[in-house]
Each structure stands twice: as C-alpha cells, then as structure tokens.
Amino acid sequence: MTQALPKDTNPGGNIFGGWVLAQMDIAGELMANEIACGPAVTVTVDKMAFKLPVHVGDTICIYAELLRVGNSSMDIKLEVWARQLFGEYKAESHLVTEGIFRYVALDKRGSPSRVPDNPQIFDRSCNAD
Ligand SMILES: CC(C)(COP(=O)(O)OP(=O)(O)OC[C@H]1O[C@@H](n2cnc3c(N)ncnc32)[C@H](O)[C@@H]1OP(=O)(O)O)[C@@H](O)C(=O)NCCC(=O)NCCS
C-alpha cells in the first residue's frame, strides 16, 4: 500500500499514469523475484487499462496474480485499487488500473534462466501456450 502525493500529479491535477504504472511494476517485480528465487526484469506490459483516475491523497493497494510460468518468463496480472482517505473518508475502494506484466528470470550473467519448479505455487502444465 502507498499514497499518491501532489508531486505525482499531471497537469490535469490527477495522478500521472506513469507513476501508477511504476508502482505496479515494482509490485510485480517483487512477486517475480519470489517466484524465480532471484532477479527478474520486465519484458512486456500488456492489456493496461486506466479505468478511473487516482486522486491526490488516495491510498492504492496493488494485488498480484500469477497467470502463467513459461521457461524463463512469468505473466503476472496486477490490479490497482484506490481508496480516498484524505479529505472526505471513503470506506470502499475502486479498481482504477490493471495490466498484465511479463517478467523474465535472470541468471548471474544477466541471461534468461529457467524459473525453478515450485508445485506449491504453480503448475507449468496449466499454461495455455
Ligand atoms: C528480458 C531479456 C533478458 C530477454 O532477453 P532475450 O534475449 O529476448 O531472451 P529470450 O529470447 O531467451 O526470451 C526469454 C523469455 O522472454 C520472453 N520474451 C522475450 N521477448 C519477449 C517479447 N517481446 N514479448 C513476449 N515475451 C518475450 C520469451 O518468450 C522467453 O520466455 P520463455 O523463456 O518463458 O519461453 C532482454 O530482452 C532484456 O534484458 N530486456 C531489458 C529488460 C529491462 O531492462 N527491463 C526494464 C525495462 S524499464
């Protein structure tokens, strides 16, 4: 969870989409690091949708779901939910942005490396492609 600050606004006064995307990438990379048991980098961002604006002072929570594990790649769906805590208190949160990020596990030389099997977390045989 983090808070959108005035320094992150666009000229329209709402939160800059690039800031939201950066928070998603940080969250997804943390999950990819855990799954890969090591470093991973972002290779693609897909199906990004900015559905609602994020306002200054909103808190955002990012939820990550592992969709697919290939050889070295991992597809992670990220959802951003925002809640107004600054000014008028609002108890409910709203889905503001979502996207599917692909990460690639790297070895010590920075080359793609196979994501180690972890049957408690994922099953490669379920992959669609
Ligand atoms: C990610 C990177 C290491 C992949 O290197 P590469 O030589 O293309 O590696 P490969 O061709 O062996 O592909 C590795 C995996 O990435 C996937 N991949 C690579 N390019 C892709 C693309 N354009 N779209 C979708 N998947 C892609 C491949 O399908 C493969 O998945 P798999 O191992 O599960 O089958 C390299 O492109 C890189 O370093 N990119 C910069 C990453 C970075 O700096 N990210 C931060 C951006 S701000």
In short:
The protein is α+β, with helices and mostly antiparallel strands and 129 residues long. The protein has one helix at residues 17-36, and strands spanning 2-3, 40-50, 58-69, 73-84, 94-105. The chain has one domain: Thiol Ester Dehydrase, Chain A.
Question: How would you describe this structure to a colleague?
Answer:
The protein is an alpha+beta fold and 129 residues long. It has one helix and five strands; from the N terminus they run E-H-E-E-E-E. The chain has one domain: Hotdog Thioesterase (Thiol Ester Dehydrase, Chain A), CATH 3.10.129. The chain is elongated and about 45 Å long. Helices cover 16% and strands 38% of the residues. The mean pLDDT is 94. The chain has a five-stranded antiparallel β-sheet, covered by helices on one side. The chain binds coenzyme A.
Features:
129 residues, alpha+beta, Thiol Ester Dehydrase, Chain A, 1 helix, elongated, binds coenzyme A
